[in-house]
C-alpha cells in the first residue's frame, strides 16, 4: 500500500512541474539550510498556545481613549539605561533601578544624582560593561553574560536586604549598604536557572521567582514568544535550608510575580498567553491556579499598590493575525523561516507595539487603564510602580524613566493635568 502511495505521489510531481517546484521551495524554506531566516540556526519548534479569543478580549477591554500616559514626564533621560524594575527602600528612598549595563543604581537627589549601589557580577568593569546609551542596543547583548542583567528588584523591608533576579546570575541578595551581590540560587534539581526574571519576598522569608525558560536565555527571549514554548517555571527559594523548589512548571514565558496583600495567593504574568494568573498559597484552593485576567497585549512585571490592587505593564497590542499564528504552529514554522528580516515579518502581521499600564483588583476587574498609543513618552514598558503620588514606569528598552502624577481619593482617580494648565491660569 505504501509503495502504491509513493508511486502516485511521484507521478503527480512529474506531471505537475509547478507543484514539484512549490514542494521544493517549501522544503528549502522549512529546512533553511543556509540559515538566512530570523530563526536560522535555532532549534525552532513552534507549538500551539493557550490564549483567549482576540475578538472577546479586544471587544470587552476598557480602553483609554485619551492616551493619558502620553501626557507623562520623561525623567533622567540618558542617565539610566534600560531600567527594567524600580524599587524604593523601607525609608522611601529611591528609586533604585536595575540597568542594562549590569549595575543597580539609586537616586540620591538633585545634588548627588545617581550612584552605583550594587553589582551582580564579580567580573564587572566600567571599561567593558559601561556602554552608556548603547547599553540598550544589541551591542550590550554579547556582554550580558559577563556583566549581568538585573531584572526584578525587591527589598525585604524588615532586613533592608535587596533581592535581585538577574537574567544570568539567578537569584541574588545584597545588604542595605550595597556592594557586590551574593548568589542565592543558580540551579534547581541539578540544572542551571537559565533566565531568572522577577521575584517577590514572602513574609515568612521565602522568595518566589520566575525562571522564564529552560531553553532560551534573555538575549534570545523573542524566540520564546515566536515558538510559544512553555518550559518556564515559578520557583521558591527557602533561606533556612538554602534550597530551591519548583512550584509550577510548563509555563509560557512566566514574567512578573507579586504576592497579595494578605499573602494568601500570588499573581504572575504569562507573557506569551497575554494573561495574569493566580496561584493560591493558603485556603481551600491551596496549590490551584486560575486565570485572573486576559489582556490585550503582552504583560511584563506586575506590582501591588497600597490598596492591594495590581498594576501591570503591558506591551500592547495583540492582533487578529497574531492569533491565527498562535493557533497554527505550522504556519509560524514556515513564515518565520522566510529569508526576510524580522522587522519586516513583524510589520506584515501588524505588530506595532505601544505602552499600556492597567490597574486591576484581585478578581481581575479593571480599575484604570492608561496608554501612550503614539509613543510620546515610552514605546515599550516593563514595570509600573505607584509610589509617592506618582506612577513610576520602567522600561527595558529605553534610557529613561517615565512618571505621571496619580492620586486616589474616595475610590475615584484623579490625575494632575499639566498640559493646558496655563490656559486656565493654574500655573
Describe this structure in words.
With 427 residues, the protein is an alpha+beta fold. It has helices at 2-15, 17-31, 54-60, 126-129, 141-147, 221-227, 320-327, 329-335, 342-348, and strands spanning 73-75, 86-87, 96-98, 103-107, 114-119, 150-155, 162-166, 170-174, 179-180, 182-185, 187-188, 191-192, 196-201, 207-211, 232-238, 243-251, 254-259, 265-270, 275-280, 289-294, 297-304, 310-316, 354-360, 366-372, 383-387, 390-394, 401-405, 407-409, 412-414. The strands form 8 sheets. The protein has a 5-stranded mixed β-sheet, with no helix packed on it. Strands 1-27-26-25 form a 4-stranded antiparallel β-sheet, with no helix packed on it. A 4-stranded antiparallel β-sheet has the order 6-7-8-10, with no helix packed on it. Helix 1 (2-15) packs across helix 2 (17-31). It is globular, with a radius of gyration of 23 Å.
Amino acid at each position: 500500500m505504501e509503495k502504491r502511495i509513493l508511486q502516485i505521489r511521484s507521478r503527480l510531481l512529474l506531471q505537475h512541474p509547478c507543484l514539484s517546484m512549490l514542494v521544493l521551495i517549501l522544503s528549502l524554506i522549512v529546512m533553511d539550510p543556509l540559515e538566512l531566516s530570523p530563526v536560522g540556526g535555532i532549534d525552532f519548534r513552534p507549538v500551539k498556545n493557550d490564549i483567549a479569543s482576540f475578538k472577546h478580549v479586544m471587544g470587552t477591554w476598557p480602553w483609554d481613549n485619551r492616551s493619558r500616559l502620553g501626557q507623562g514626564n520623561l525623567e533622567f533621560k540618558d542617565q539610566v539605561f534600560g531600567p527594567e524594575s524600580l524599587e524604593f527602600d523601607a525609608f522611601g528612598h529611591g528609586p533604585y533601578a536595575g540597568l542594562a549595563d549590569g549595575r543597580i543604581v539609586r537616586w540620591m537627589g538633585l545634588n548627588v544624582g545617581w550612584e552605583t549601589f550594587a553589582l551582580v557580577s564579580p567580573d564587572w568593569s566600567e571599561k567593558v560593561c559601561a556602554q552608556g546609551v548603547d547599553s540598550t542596543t544589541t551591542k550590550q547583548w554579547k556582554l550580558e553574560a559577563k556583566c549581568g542583567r538585573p531584572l526584578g528588584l525587591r527589598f525585604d523591608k524588615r532586613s533592608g536586604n535587596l533581592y535581585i533576579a538577574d537574567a544570568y546570575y539567578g537569584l541574588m541578595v545584597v545588604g542595605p549598604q550595597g556592594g557586590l551581590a551574593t548568589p542565592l540560587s543558580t540551579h534547581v534539581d541539578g540544572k542551571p536557572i537559565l533566565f531568572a526574571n522577577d521575584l517577590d519576598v514572602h513574609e515568612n522569608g521565602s522568595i518566589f521567582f520566575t525562571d522564564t525558560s529552560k531553553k532560551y536565555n534573555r538575549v534570545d527571549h523573542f524566540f520564546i514568544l515566536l515558538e510559544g514554548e512553555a518550559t518556564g517555571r515559578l520557583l521558591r527559594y527557602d533561606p533556612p535550608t538554602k534550597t530551591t523548589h519548583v512550584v509550577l512548571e510548563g509555563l509560557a514565558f512566566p514574567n512578573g510575580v507579586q504576592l497579595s496583600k494578605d499573602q494568601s495567593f500570588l499573581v504572575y504574568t504569562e507573557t506569551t498567553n497575554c494573561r495574569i494568573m493566580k496561584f493560591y498559597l493558603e485556603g481551600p484552593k491551596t496549590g490551584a491556579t486560575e486565570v485572573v485576567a486576559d489582556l490585550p497585549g503582552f504583560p511584563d512585571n506586575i506590582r501591588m499598590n497600597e490598596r492591594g490592587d495590581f498594576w501591570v505593564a503591558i506591551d500592547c497590542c495583540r492582533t487578529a493575525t497574531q492569533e491565527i499564528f498562535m493557533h497554527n504552529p505550522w504556519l509560524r514554522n514556515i513564515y518565520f523561516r522566510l529569508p526576510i528580516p524580522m522587522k519586516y515579518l513583524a510589520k506584515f502581521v501588524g505588530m506595532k507595539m505601544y505602552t499600556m499600564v492597567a490597574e486591576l483588583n484581585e478578581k481581575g476587574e479593571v480599575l484604570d487603564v492608561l496608554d501612550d498609543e503614539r509613543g510620546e513618552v515610552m514605546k515599550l514598558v516593563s514595570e509600573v510602580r505607584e509610589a509617592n503620588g506618582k506612577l513610576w514606569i520602567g522600561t527595558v528598552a529605553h534610557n529613561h524613566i517615565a512618571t505621571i502624577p496619580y492620586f486616589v481619593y474616595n475610590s475615584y482617580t484623579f490625575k494632575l493635568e499639566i498640559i493646558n494648565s496655563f490656559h486656565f491660569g493654574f500655573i
